[in-house]
Amino acid sequence: MSRNILVCVAWPYVNSEPHLGHIAGMNVPADIFARYHRLAGNRVAMVSGSDMHGTPTALRAVDEGVKPEDIAFRYHDVWSDCMQRMGFAYDLYTHTHTKIHEEVAQDVMLTLDKHGFIYEDTQLMPYSETEDRFLSDRFVEGICPACGFDGARGDQCDGCGRTLDPSDLINIRSIRDGSTPVFRETTHLMIKLSAFQEQLEKWVRTKNDWRPNVRNQTLGFLNEGLHDRAMTRDIEWGVPIPFEGYDKKRIYVWFEAVIGYFSATKAWAIESGREDDWKEFWHDPDAESYYFQGKDNIPFHTVLWPAMLMGYGGLNLPTDVVANEYLNLDGQGFSSSRNWAVWLPDYLERYDVDPLRYYLASIMPESSDSDFTWEGYLAANNNVLVATLGNFVHRTLTITTRNFDHKVPVPGELAPQDQSVLDACEQTLDDVANSIETRHFRRALYEAMELARVGNRYLDAEEPWRTVKSESDKAAKTLWTALNVISTLRTVFYPFIPFSCDKMHDLLGFDGATATDGWQKRVVEPGSSLPSPKPLFRKLDPEIVEQEHERLLAQQSDN
RNA sequence: GGCGAUGUAGCUCAGCAGGUUAGAGCGAGCGCUUCAUAAGCGCUAGGUCACAAGUUCGAGUCUUGUCAUCGCCA
After folding, report:
1. Nucleotide B27: nearest residue by CA–C1'?
2. Protein-to-nucleotide distance from the CA of A504 to the C1' of B35, whole angstroms
3. What is the mean pLDDT of residues A36-63?
4. What's the rounded Cα separation, in Å, for the pair A20 and A347?
5. Straight-line distance from CA A509 to C1' B69, in Å?
6. CA–CA separation, A26 and A436 (whole Å)
7. Nearest nt (C1') from A380 Cα
8. Closest protein residue to B70 using CA and C1' atoms?
9. How many angstroms is C1' of B36 away from CA of A269?
10. Is residue A159 scored above 70 in pLDDT?
């Protein structure tokens, strides 16, 4: 029976281009998951977009002296383009500066208010008299009272890492013009998170299949007791607030960005011409929803967003929040500001997509931080993709086309060793499916590659290049079987390296497309014709490792 | 400071309802093979399972403490 699967991917701040650290733990696993489920015959909606209203975007605009929307749209376009080129098959990749998002976010706010979960609260905030506006915490800096670091922000000190309040800062000043702000009272809307405490605890305790850090961190967070939280702030970049007296304030971005999952599903339904389709994913109690995140985002998706959904009423809570750890680069965290990054647009200019998708999936930070290295990338490409998978496909097709006149051999009755290889295909389909279902992506990838090894061992044992000369019947069985292994590889690898699988599809002379052949071994038709084989992957020159290292260093000194 | 996760062969990771000589892939060494992008297949080497104490007949596997890394909260 077909299931409804909503795949939600974290919304990136658009204050820089995407780098590999951004996509490794979120877009890559989400796309694997979504592609698998589509193949398995389930109804999938994969949505995300750019978080346009993040403070970093507004800050960058200040730095460059332009409007926040200039920054936001500039990088949204880059992200959008990269998502597409990477083959991340979103049903909709949108952004939060849209009419529908504004409407949905405001509706959520109004509904929470109607249900009694919102109240007003007054607090003291820094106010710039020169600019006649409040300064939110990231717009002020000063000396950290704890460590004396000059340049601590209103929310945190970069010197000692301590969390701060603007009123803690010594010699507080505006980062916009350096003037000294005064503290004035300002009124904000608060959400009663405390009202959801018990309901959330009960819900999380049922989630035994969540990853340990997600579940335990959430329980720990709840254990400390939920504090009500401001959902508006004094800033002019963001979604307007549908209440009297709030025209100079905006919805706090944490509150509004998570609503993007919901508004984007609605937007997708409208754009696809079936306005009510979003209900299949948000109202149907059997629908499943999976949220792919970085580890820094866990409480937002396991506590705050579910609380909002509970308060709104009638909408599905997350089935799982699949949070990954971080990807590092040569042992150090990716950093946009230090320019320590492999930027995606830059990568795409010089290399192919699938080797990156493959390598990132193979080192996916599922249980701990992992490390991208160009040595590792080279090894994954040359020693595994080319040598194991590419070579198996290519050697099989080469022997077959040369000796059987570009036709699929007619196998006749199979021998036991042939049958056991076909059984291994079925087993691999089951194993990979099960691993992806349970969100073990590295294991799934390993299991898929294991089938290519089975194929290589099988060819070595059967030696079709030899039997084809003396026992043509036997060679026909071997090669037909091996072609069916390729057909299976095409399917089980499709979630990971779709472009290469489409090539395999063509090399087998198949009509239609891998994407519509289902999660099954499509039997290769005896007697059908085969095109001339071409290698699936390019072997890379080991020199790229040194070149890329130099490139990284050069880009740092440019900085 | 509190909480959470992680720490197993050179690298990336399995193993963890406690139980014979701790596993895989890549890398390394040796051998076989030649259909294949000098690819494949087989064999071998290599680990005080972060450290310390404890529970147990027996502990990477449970308990406690320490250290390190990352994240969250204060």
Report:
1. A379
2. 19
3. 92
4. 9
5. 50
6. 14
7. B26
8. A369
9. 48
10. no
Residue written as tokens 């965290």? A333
Q: Average the pLDDT over A111-129 and give the result.
A: 92
Separation of alpha carbons A478 and A514, rounded Å: 24
Report in angstroms the alpha-carbon separations of A549 from A140, A330, A333, A510.
37, 10, 16, 42
pLDDT tens column, A406-440: 999 999 999 999 999 999 999 999 999 999 999 99
> Using the CA of A465, which nucleotide's C1' is the nearest one?
B35
Task: Give me the CA A480–C1' B65 separation in Å, rounded.
Answer: 61
Distance CA(A145)–CA(A157), nearest Å, equals 9
Check pLDDT > 60 for residue A559.
Answer: no
What number of residues does chain A have?
A: 559
**pLDDT over 90 (residue A150):** no
pTM greater than the 0.80 cutoff? yes
Q: Return d(Cα A421, Cα A545) in angstroms, integer.
A: 37
Query: Could you please report the per-residue DSSP string of A465-483?
Result: HHHHHH-HHHHHHHHHHHH
Report the C-alpha gap between A52 and A237 in whole angstroms: 9
What pLDDT, on the 0 to 100 scale, is given for residue A234? 87
Tell me which protein residue sits closest to nucleotide B4, measuring alpha carbon to C1': A217
What percent of chain A is modeled with pLDDT above 70? 98
Q: Which nucleotide C1' is nearest A163 CA?
A: B74
State both tokens at A265: 């599903």
| C1' (B6) to CA (A369) span, angstroms | 8
> Token digits for A305?
């967003």
Distance from residue A455's CA to nucleotide B72's C1', rounded to whole Å: 46
* Virtual torsion, Cα A411, A416, A417, A423, nearest 10 deg: 90
Protein-covered nucleotides of chain B (CB closer than 7 Å) are 3-7, 11-14, 25-27, 34-37, 39-42, 69-74
| Residue given tokens 């409007």 in the structure block | A67
